[in-house]
Structures are given as structure tokens and as C-alpha cells.
């Protein structure tokens, strides 16, 4: 299965919205910090749509901050995972519209610890696991008992909390494991997801400039 799949109809609609122009670098906002699945998919998208003149990826601490930057004209587009529980608020925002919808599989997910941490499965039920809210349901499908959890703004932030010693176990992805020098102690898989790229709503922009 391809990691990134952009249907032709979506590609044509996006190309009409963002004309090819090698002199302009489109600013694409998404969830940071470095090492998130969102950044990974943004990089794949940039390569797949490179004929649009290239993308400058801008990372924010939350998707909401990305959308604020979009409505304030600090970025041109925002990439959001459909697994994000509050994505409905972006679809309901009258200043936004979906510019592109596509499928993209995340890096491999798993449980990660510091390299010197002696992990065994019973620690899942006595220690605390840090995770972004979206991948938490993975635990129900791989383990048969409730796990103590705290949440972070992103998978990369969760990995950072383990790297700095705040927690010992994180649900995170392969990019963040490398970024924070962690190790996987239990692997899940890549997660096939769908994604939306939001733009400012054109009719609103036209009305505002009238």
C-alpha cells in the first residue's frame, strides 16, 4: 500500500486553488514540534505536490494555533489529521474550506522509553503512559487492562516528556523516537489515516476585498 494517496480529482481541485509558481513558497501549517506524524505527512505532501512551487512547513503547538495563523494570513494552508477529535470545529468555521482531502499513513507507532529504562509490560498498569489523545485507543486493541494515561499536545511532545524524564513511557511514532533518542519497547504499526488541508474560504476573501 502506498504511504500517500492523493486522488486525481483532489489533485486537480488543489492545483486550481494553488497555481504552479516556482517563485512562491506556499506556507503550510501543521502540528509540531518536529517529529509529529503531521510533519511527516506534510513533508510527503510537499514532495508529491512539488510542482506547486514547494511548501514551507510551519509547525505550531496545536492545530488550533495553526488555524489562527491561517485566518490571520500568516500561513496559506493548514494540514489536519482526521483522527484529531476536534477537527469538526475547523469544518464548521465559516472562514475556512477544505482544499484537499487525501490518504496518508503515519510512521510506525509504538510504546517508547529511554534507552536505559528497563521496561516490562506490567509497568503499563503501575506507571503512567503519556500520549496525544488520538492514538490512545491503540492500547485497547493490544492490551487487556486499563492503562494510566496523561495527554500531550502531540506524539512528538509525548516523546519529549519521556526524554526529559517527566514520564517513562510514551505512545509515539518512529520519527519522534529518532528525534528524542528513545527506543521502541512495543510496536503497533503504521496507521492508515485521511487528512484535510484547509484554506481560507475564497468567497470570504473576495467579499473582504470588495
Structure overview:
The chain has 210 residues and is of the alpha/beta class. Helix content is 30%, strand content 29%. The chain has eight helices and eleven strands. Mean pLDDT is 92; it is low at 206-210. It has helices at residues 8-17, 37-48, 63-71, 87-92, 138-142, 155-163, 174-179, 202-208; strands spanning 4-5, 26-31, 55-60, 77-81, 96-105, 109-114, 129-131, 149-151, 169-173, 182-187, 192-200.
Can you lay out the helices and strands and say which pair or pack?
Elements: E1 4-5, H1 8-17, E2 26-31, H2 37-48, E3 55-60, H3 63-71, E4 77-81, H4 87-92, E5 96-105, E6 109-114, E7 129-131, H5 138-142, E8 149-151, H6 155-163, E9 169-173, H7 174-179, E10 182-187, E11 192-200, H8 202-208
Parallel strand pairs: 2-3, 2-4, 7-8, 7-9
Antiparallel strand pairs: 1-5, 4-11, 5-11, 6-9, 6-10
Amino acid at each position: 500500500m502506498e504511504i500517500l494517496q492523493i486522488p486525481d480529482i483532489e489533485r486537480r481541485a488543489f492545483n486550481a486553488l494553488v497555481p504552479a509558481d516556482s517563485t512562491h513558497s506556499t506556507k503550510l501549517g501543521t502540528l509540531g514540534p518536529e517529529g509529529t506524524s503531521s510533519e511527516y505527512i506534510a513533508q510527503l505532501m510537499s514532495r508529491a505536490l512539488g510542482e506547486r512551487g514547494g511548501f514551507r512547513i510551519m509547525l505550531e503547538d496545536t492545530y488550533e494555533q495553526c488555524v489562527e495563523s491561517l485566518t490571520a494570513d500568516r500561513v496559506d494552508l493548514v494540514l489536519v489529521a482526521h483522527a484529531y477529535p476536534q477537527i469538526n470545529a475547523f469544518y464548521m468555521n465559516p472562514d475556512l474550506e477544505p482544499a484537499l482531502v487525501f490518504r496518508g499513513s503515519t510512521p510506525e507507532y509504538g510504546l517508547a522509553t529511554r534507552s536505559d529504562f528497563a521496561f516490562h509490560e506490567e509497568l503499563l498498569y503501575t506507571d503512567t503512559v503519556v500520549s496525544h489523545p488520538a492514538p490512545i485507543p491503540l492500547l485497547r486493541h493490544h492490551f487487556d487492562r486499563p492503562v494510566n494515561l496523561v495527554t500531550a499536545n502531540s506524539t512528538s511532545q509525548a516523546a519529549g516528556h519521556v526524554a526529559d524524564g517527566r514520564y517513562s513511557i510514551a505512545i509515539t511514532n518512529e520519527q519522534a523516537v529518532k528525534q528524542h533518542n528513545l527506543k521502541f519497547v512495543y510496536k503497533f504499526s503504521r496507521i492508515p489515516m485521511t487528512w484535510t488541508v484547509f484554506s481560507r474560504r475564497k468567497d470570504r476573501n473576495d467579499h473582504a476585498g470588495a
